[in-house]
Fold this sequence. Notes:
Layout: H1 2-20, E1 23-32, E2 42-47, E3 50-55, E4 61-68, E5 70-77, E6 84-90, E7 94-96, E8 99-101, H2 106-121, E9 127-131, H3 142-147, E10 152-156, E11 164-168, E12 176-180, E13 183-184, E14 202-209, E15 223-229, E16 236-244, E17 248-258, E18 264-275, E19 280-281, E20 287-288, E21 297-298, E22 301-302, E23 308-322, E24 325-340, E25 355-373, E26 376-392, E27 407-408, E28 411-412, E29 428-445, E30 448-464, H4 470-473, E31 478-494, E32 499-521, E33 526-551, E34 554-565, H5 569-573, E35 589-605, E36 608-622, E37 625-630, E38 636-641, E39 645-658, E40 662-675, E41 679-680, E42 686-687, E43 700-711, E44 719-729, E45 732-733, E46 746-747, E47 750-760, E48 766-773, E49 792-800
Parallel strand pairs: 1-7, 1-8, 12-15
Antiparallel strand pairs: 1-4, 2-3, 2-5, 5-6, 9-14, 10-11, 12-13, 14-15, 16-17, 16-49, 17-18, 18-23, 19-22, 20-21, 23-24, 24-25, 25-26, 26-29, 27-28, 29-30, 30-31, 31-32, 32-33, 33-34, 34-35, 35-36, 36-39, 37-38, 39-40, 40-43, 41-42, 43-44, 44-47, 45-46, 47-48, 48-49
Amino acid sequence: xxxxxxxxxxxxxxxxxxxxxxxxxxxxxxxxxxxxxxxxxxxxxxxxxxxxxxxxxxxxxxxxxxxxxxxxxxxxxxxxxxxxxxxxxxxxxxxxxxxxxxxxxxxxxxxxxxxxxxxxxxxxxxxxxxxxxxxxxxxxxxxxxxxxxxxxxxxxxxxxxxxxxxxxxxxxxxxxxxxxxxxxxxxxxxxxxxxxxxxxxxxxxxxxxxxxxxxxxxxxxxxxxxxxxxxxxxxxxxxxxxxxxxxxxxxxxxxxxxxxxxxxxxxxxxxxxxxxxxxxxxxxxxxxxxxxxxxxxxxxxxxxxxxxxxxxxxxxxxxxxxxxxxxxxxxxxxxxxxxxxxxxxxxxxxxxxxxxxxxxxxxxxxxxxxxxxxxxxxxxxxxxxxxxxxxxxxxxxxxxxxxxxxxxxxxxxxxxxxxxxxxxxxxxxxxxxxxxxxxxxxxxxxxxxxxxxxxxxxxxxxxxxxxxxxxxxxxxxxxxxxxxxxxxxxxxxxxxxxxxxxxxxxxxxxxxxxxxxxxxxxxxxxxxxxxxxxxxxxxxxxxxxxxxxxxxxxxxxxxxxxxxxxxxxxxxxxxxxxxxxxxxxxxxxxxxxxxxxxxxxxxxxxxxxxxxxxxxxxxxxxxxxxxxxxxxxxxxxxxxxxxxxxxxxxxxxxxxxxxxxxxxxxxxxxxxxxxxxxxxxxxxxxxxxxxxxxxxxxxxxxxxxxxxxxxxxxxxxxxxxxxxxxxxxxxxxxxxxxxxxxxxxxxxxxxxxxxxxxxxxxxxxxxxxxxxxxxxxxxxxxxxxxxxxxxxxxxxxxxxxx
Length: 802
């Protein structure tokens, strides 16, 4: 009997111990009462002699794993939001805890958004962070938004849909890489460009000038623009429509869904863009002969063959914030575009029948998991894209800026070549691109992280032109390109995270092969042959960034890098649709880049708040790749290495707001890029460099933005925002700036003034905005005096459906 009692007591104790030794997990999300995720909230778990700490991630999610069953308190702390403590009981394997933090006023939201910017800046890179939440309601394109940022000059060749490239503190063209959520934008196809992405889809824009963080694994020698899209934090559906001058119409819709129980996530977006681009142009390149043999007469004319249409959709399906993945998404992107071509490389040549059609399909997989195994974070992205492009130019009729064919004795003039831009063509290009990016980070401890990043990019093009003679077309051309970039980096935080350092090394490998048709001429005949070309390169670069935060308001940063930029496939192989010739012998660019600057932000005096950011930089570049017009009529572009260019400069930004109602932002950028190439005379003697300024490059710009917000003006709970923006671009030489000679083309000083207002109805569901751009109707130029639109009026309606 005694033995039975002892056995029963032992069994009861064992069962009790087993019950109390069960472990489970807390998980959930923390958000603000504005429904925004509470990023980087400090969270403390207390109870049962256990204390654990963590931070919420970018989606506001958090977890506490392997916790014994029992009663606990969880405290949530976020900067300038009311802290919150909840009592919870863990009695199952997984317990969900979702918490909403209260935000008392608008100024607290402002501080939070600045904290995101501050965290990026504290890593030591010269960076501008552009928040888009309020700007998205305006009738504004992403390129216009970037053009208002310090050190950035967007070079666009016309209206909506025209080619654009970016100048960051003296570096330009493909030296500046564009990313969408860290993925190179070149994989998305030309119809999915920055101008095509509605600002409402964008959470923020990060502009890195010079040295670029290692996680953006690409050869971004001159800097990078990373578009961070909105994540899915709730079930939502938003849309906007806009219309304006020059036959401009735009519409977009975006939304997402997430099942909070199993993590299933779906999100998508779609857009439509249309523009006639029939704005007025004038100047020394817009001239016509009113009759045969008479001098040219300069006129004001409308662009008449510049229609642009694009449509696109992007969808992703998978799981987010589940135990085995922070995200696992399969995606598909479909887009197409057709565009009339109005001019060649300059406005000297005008077309009336040349145009291009393109469509892109892209398929992708995106995976990320923090803590895949202890202290190890992994992310990977892979995509395959196929672009089909057709260039149509089969009519030889010559057009003038009057909008109809030129004529002689009532018969239309024709080009002797048989088409407007050379030989007749119906060329079809199929570009196939594979992109794979992998990031692995090992957190040695809270203050030290080592990362390995790899980017692999392959490109092939298959071309066919039925307009070519059969014998010539039978000589098949091939174009193949491979780029591999491997980065190893180490990050350290010291002195209570006041000192942050990052050092990295990069390996750059490129291999490109082409077989292109060319004409072989001798004294008796001209024949078509295939010229083979194979070039590979293997380079190594390195760099680092450092910052020190003296106080929450004052940070000093610096960075340096030995950088390499590999020629892009379109630069090497050309693009018939864009009038770009092949440049198969292009060499990689090399540059030593240096940045030094400071940020003094959130300086408060009563109701006044100030912020200052400044950066000085040096770029010492060899074999800089630039695009120049070529041919007697400057009808085509060609990329060339221009040798040694040395650049010094600075940019400066001042921000001010009064009582969170009146906002001012002003920035100035200046750089001095000079030619340091040594040339030789006929006897082989070196000639002192000319030190001439870099051609066709604006070097001094200023931008001033003023905004005023008035709540409850018409309706209680409404908001009226009025805004204006002034852009100044100092005159610069189109070509050589060397003293002496005559007839040098100067692109004159440009001033553009924009203004508008937006009315947001109560509950923030509907916003109506109206903008006037280029109010003064001034001539605005970018690339080789290709004029941009004059005064235009635009309206936009944005609304939240869910």
